[in-house]
Amino acid sequence: MLRGIHTSASGMLAQQHRLGVISNNLANITTTAYKRDNSIDKAFPELLIRKMKVDTIQFPYRIRHSTGSIDKATTVGVLGTGVEQNEIFTVLEQGALKLTENPTDVALMGEGFFVVDTPYGERYTRNGNFTIGNGNILMTKEGYPVLGQKGVIQLQENNFRIEEDGTIYVNANLREDLAFIDPRENDWRGEIVLDSFRVVDFEFPRYMHKQGDSLYYDTEYSGPAVEISGLERPRLVHKFLEASNVEPVSQMVEMIEVNRAYELGQKSIQVQDSSTNRLLSVRA
């Protein structure tokens, strides 16, 4: 009886963890570039159930000999002993793109992450909702500078454009600090290459951890950040943002499933508690 109660309780705890993950997903439906989480459960080791009698003739459950023992009873099934949360898995599927017309907004189409500088070291994000802060530094909404191939990216409003490969072009005629640089050859717009966004990926990105503020950090299991170049580099879409990949309908359906499973666990405990109470009453 007590084993059944513990098994039911472990299932309820697992459903409670799932509900927390789903609630967090639904709370971030409108968060730019948010990636939904899934709660992965793991079953405890199962116990074998064996027959004690065959053709109404009882025989030893286990025969011992000099080298060990042999289980003679026929296996009829297994008994579950419970479940626990194994990990929270982040689904890195591409989110839909939405037009903002904001010149400092950039979306990634494909695998990869922007690199930002934080007090904790380099961190990685898919959220391209950037802004120009003090010192003309391109930064996240939380104030973390965005990094390019040459370091911190510095821009002036309405004087740049971003190509699909992440290259940032500025008009040298409108930048006094760039007047000493000759424009690109045959470029009638007088533009020069200022910098290029750093875009990185990981060998096993599923093992990255979320830090908050749309930031991720690498772990020993994800591997270090690797610069993406050439044809493997994702496409950067200027003046667009990536939306969350949370699907509200599927999350609501999963929430209903979790609530029903939790209720079943409650009823199971109630039934076993009632049976134990009757058993003790009879013995008394």
Write the layout of secondary structure elements.
Blueprint (H helix, E strand, L loop, with lengths): L1 H26 L9 E7 L3 E4 L2 E2 L2 E2 L3 E4 L2 E4 L3 E5 L3 E8 L6 E3 L6 E4 L3 E6 L2 E5 L5 E2 L5 E2 L7 E2 L2 E2 L7 E3 L4 E5 L19 E6 L2 E3 L7 E4 L2 E3 L8 E2 L7 E4 L1 E3 L5 H36 L1
Helix pairs in contact: 1-2
Q: Figure out the total of helices.
A: 2
Derived structural class: alpha+beta
Q: What radius of gyration results from the CA coordinates?
A: 29 Å
Which term fits the overall shape?
elongated
Q: What would your notes on this structure say?
A:
The protein is an alpha+beta fold. About 20% of the residues lie in helices and about 35% in strands. A 6-stranded antiparallel beta sheet has the order 21-22-12-11-20-23, with no helix packed on it. Strands 17-18-19 form a 3-stranded antiparallel beta sheet, with no helix packed on it. A two-stranded antiparallel ribbon has the order 1-8. A hairpin with a 4-residue loop joins strand 17 and strand 18. The longest helix is centred in the last third of the chain and has 36 residues, at about 250-284. The radius of gyration is 29 Å and the shape is elongated.
